[in-house]
């Protein structure tokens, strides 16, 4: 959302910069942010750089509020963590 300040993005496992992920394994991403305005729940999207190309990464199905702590509603002036685990596809280069 354009109405947040991102404090940090943490990827686990991550053994350096850039992170090297292993195909067929899972990775967990945690995004800590401050809501600058009240935000209605909706669709989230994340892109990762694979080689020189930014590729959309699959997110969990369903309500984004299930992966948010504290849960919705997202209120201005509060800090939140969006966390999810993604499978690293064997199809990625």
From TrEMBL:
Primary location class: secreted
GO cellular component: extracellular region
InterPro entries documented for this protein: Ig_E-set, ML_dom
Subcellular location: Secreted
Source taxon at top rank: Eukaryota
Pfam families named in the record: E1_DerP2_DerF2
Gene3D superfamilies: 2.60.40.770
Record domain MD-2-related lipid-recognition: where: 2-93
Keyword set includes Iron: no
Keyword field: Secreted
Family, similarity comment: Belongs to the NPC2 family.
Name of this protein: MD-2-related lipid-recognition domain-containing protein
């Amino acid at each position: 959302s354009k109405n947040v300040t991102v404090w940090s993005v943490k990827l686990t496992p991550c053994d350096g910069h850039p992170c090297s992920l292993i195909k067929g394994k899972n990775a967990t991403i945690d995004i800590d942010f401050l809501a600058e305005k009240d935000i209605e729940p909706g669709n989230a999207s994340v892109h990762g750089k694979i080689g020189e190309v930014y590729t959309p990464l699959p997110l969990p199905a369903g309500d984004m509020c299930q992966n948010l702590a504290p849960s919705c509603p997202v209120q201005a002036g509060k800090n939140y963590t969006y966390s999810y685990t993604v499978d690293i596809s064997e199809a990625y280069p």
